[in-house]
Design goal:
Elements: E1 3-5, E2 17-22, E3 28-34, H1 40-50, E4 79-81, E5 87-91, E6 94-96, E7 99-101, E8 104-109
Length: 122
């Protein structure tokens, strides 16, 4: 995970988590975002875990696209970056245009170091 966006409406703490994975050349690339599947207690728990990981700059090789044909545009001024040390597990339907689609948060993974997170290959 590389950051989170501010919440909107009545949602608390986190709008969505920004995801990343490592390419074969070792560069950390943006993989999309996830907000679905996080009950209020989990939003609070994850937000607390992210606070000590705060970073001043984008940890990605390239900034994420601000707009895409999927979802609302990403407003970078509403994003909080973190050191890419926390790993979360998600389910998704597919990769399209280099981004995960229909992503659902399943939980945190403590058994896998972040540097081992790679894109699944069919």
């Amino acid at each position: 995970m590389v950051g989170w966006s501010d919440p909107e409406g009545s949602r608390l703490r986190i709008g969505s988590l920004l995801l990343g994975c490592y390419a074969s050349d070792g560069k950390l690339i943006y993989a999309g975002r996830v907000g679905t599947g996080m009950p209020v207690a989990e939003l609070e728990r994850v937000w607390q875990r992210l606070q000590p990981l705060a970073a001043d700059k984008i940890p990605l090789f390239e900034p994420p696209p601000r707009g895409s044909r999927f979802g609302s545009p990403l407003v970078l001024s509403r994003v909080h970056w973190v050191r890419p040390e926390m790993v979360v597990e998600v389910s998704y339907v597919e990769w399209t245009d280099g981004l995960l689609r229909h992503v659902v948060y399943l939980g945190e993974r403590e058994d896998k170091p972040a540097v081992e997170v790679r894109r699944d290959r069919p």
